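# step 3/5: fold
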Amino acid sequence: MRALLIKDGRIIDPGQGIDERGSLLLSEGKIAWRGASPPQADYDILYAEGMVVCPGFVDLHCHLRQPGFDQKETIATGTRAAARGGFTTVCCMPNTNPALDSRETIEYVKAEAGKSAAIRVLPIGCVTKDRKGEELADMAALAGAGAIGFSDDGSPVKDPELMRQALAKSQELDLPVIDHCEEPSLIEGGQMNEGELARRLGLRGIPPTSEEIMVSRDIMLARMTGGHVHIAHVSTLGAVALIRDGKKQGVAVTAEVTPHHLTLTEEECNGYNTNAKVAPPLRTRRDNQSLLRGLKDGTIDIIATDHAPHARADKECDFAKAAFGISNFETALGSLLNMVHGGQLALNMLIARLTCDPAKFLKNEMLGTLKINTPADITIFDPYKEWPVDPEAFASKGKNTPLAGRVLKGKTMATIYGGRLVYKDESITFIGEL
């Protein structure tokens, strides 16, 4: 592998407090040098003038659909899409077929990723066997196989006693339980956020309370057990308040928010737009604002995509029958940068919530950083490049996005994983051998 010089970019590494113009030299898969005047050497060059050079993005919540749902996505297609979005590490959820509830299924994902993934894949194991919520999975075996946490994603752990046991076990293993917080009895048959728009469209609503009840329960159980609960895809202002209070009380609770819950509202469902159907549902502008405040004050620790690709038939149907989920890898950065351009969020904080903060959650000092001698996982993006969202051009099999046809401002120009260029936009200047 030839050395690579990333030349004359704006280098931002929030974990080290770095924000400066300069160059990075990558050699043998690691970051070898940072500065203004590169050493004389034989290397390929990526010209990054006018662009941001930062640690590779780390996504704690995505769906790669393999095994079992290859028509929606595969590890190969999903990680290529992630690389296009600037991600160099992704954590895949276990709602596959079979579910990731055994050492064998975790090892399958790792082996398949070793053969076909463009970037690093870290599997998340189930909390309960087959995600049925009836009996705990062998969490110790899953951890031993390489699971980075436990979740029945798409399904909350309904039984409080099982959740208590899971959190106690997670405390033993020093790994989080990641819960999809929706009270099943309150969301049954629900299609979108409960409110006037749902009534006008004749669709059954999903109330904010459905999320807040489960968040409150999980925080109380985490306090009881000392376990670490991570609240997935927070969507309501009430949930933000509960998490904030839990943290003030010293409970081991963390949380994530998605790009769509930060930037879109229930209005996207107008016209029965199935591409805006997501769980938990898109809420209101007040919820957006509360989520943003929580992200800025540290109540919400991380931005995660919840990339949920679907086959066309899953979305091109009646709203009530359509699957929940948005294909998010390739539009995440552009949609999030809208908040930066609007003065709502500092660029450095946005990068932190995508890099060093999820790396801290994973307790991995080699990720989310540009420190010398760490793996050369790097994202280069142009914060001002405008581009139209064309789902047909996605690398992901999932073309399901409510952003189709919109123009986003900010685009990944190159993604480097382990020193290798795994994605390059055609407009970035590269001199060397691919």
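# step 4/5: annotate
The chain has a mean pLDDT of 97.
# step 5/5: archive (pending)
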